[in-house]
């Protein structure tokens, strides 16, 4: 494995890369870091040259000082490593990032896997989860432990489960990663108001995506995430959707063997 730091132009990104063959880039969700891919690493690096990295404000990368553009950071990282073409796999905010990147740099993308992701400017319906308001209130009070707990309840447990119904090891691992971003204030500083959002936004441009696309979503995730998956499937010509049962927003952490099989079967059949 090769590890290092790449200059994004406004901070350093920590990355790891291992394996041979076509490049597969893994982009984490916006409440954890690249450690969320631990259960994918060995399986994927046997078949591909796999790159994972911590977005700014997460994990071992530099903290953020203002809004960031994750798709621009991804571009600088790939350019710095001399990677001209890659398969992209992103979860949640990482999924939104890879969709935007594909629309902006279609010549660099071999395939796209979107996990629990929504396209930019996707219009949510209904009442937001109660945890969102509670998180904002906890942030105002500086109660970072509660902020972290609420994020795990929202994204790992999901809408339809109680904490005791979820693997304790998955919750613990996610919480350890999440505390770094919460301590850095990443969401409030950078992600609540992204820098230079894609224009026009992705939600109205999905038919421009021509590469093969795999959409993975957990059956117990927020219904709006599943609705976004339907939109992606219906609007992208070469899209295939997989609903993984009995898991929520991070299906790769809850059911790694099933997740790995879905991704590798998709990539092998391109």
Automatic annotation (TrEMBL):
InterPro entries to which the protein is assigned, alphabetical: AB_hydrolase_1 (IPR000073), AB_hydrolase_fold (IPR029058), AB_hydrolase_sf (IPR050266), Epox_hydrolase-like (IPR000639)
Keywords: Hydrolase, Transferase
Record-level GO cellular component terms: membrane
Protein's organism: Methanosarcina mazei S-6
Transferase is among the record's keywords: yes
The protein, known as: Acetoin dehydrogenase E2 subunit dihydrolipoyllysine-residue acetyltransferase
UniProt xrefs under Pfam families: Abhydrolase_1 (PF00561)
Top-level division of the source organism's lineage: Archaea
GO molecular function terms noted in the UniProt entry: haloalkane dehalogenase activity; transferase activity
Sequence ranges assigned to domain AB hydrolase-1 in this UniProt record: 23-256
EC number: 3.8.1.5
């Amino acid at each position: 494995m090769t590890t290092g730091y790449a200059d994004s132009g406004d901070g350093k990104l920590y990355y790891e890369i291992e394996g041979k063959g076509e490049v597969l880039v893994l982009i984490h969700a916006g409440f954890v870091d690249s450690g969320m891919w631990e259960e994918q690493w060995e399986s994927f690096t046997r078949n591909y040259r796999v790159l994972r990295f911590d977005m700014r404000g997460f994990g071992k990368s530099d903290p953020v000082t203002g809004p960031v553009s994750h798709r621009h950071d991804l571009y600088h990282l790939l350019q710095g490593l001399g990677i001209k073409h890659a398969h992209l796999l992103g979860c949640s905010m990482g999924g939104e990032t890879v969709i935007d990147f594909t629309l902006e740099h279609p010549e660099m993308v071999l395939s796209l896997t979107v996990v629990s992701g929504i396209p930019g400017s996707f219009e949510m319906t209904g009442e937001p989860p109660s945890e969102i308001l509670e998180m904002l209130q906890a942030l105002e009070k500086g109660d970072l432990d509660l902020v972290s707990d609420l994020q795990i309840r929202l994204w790992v447990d999901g809408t339809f489960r109680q904490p005791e119904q979820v693997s304790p090891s998955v919750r613990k691992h996610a919480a350890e990663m999440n505390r770094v971003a919460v301590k850095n204030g990443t969401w409030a500083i950078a992600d609540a108001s992204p820098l230079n959002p894609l224009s026009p936004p992705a939600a109205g441009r999905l038919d421009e995506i021509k590469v093969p696309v795999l959409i993975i979503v957990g059956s117990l995730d927020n219904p709006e995430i599943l609705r976004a998956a339907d939109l992606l499937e219906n609007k992208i010509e070469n899209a295939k959707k997989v609903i993984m049962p009995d898991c929520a927003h991070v299906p790769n952490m809850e059911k790694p063997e099933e997740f790995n099989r879905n991704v590798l079967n998709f990539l092998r059949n391109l």
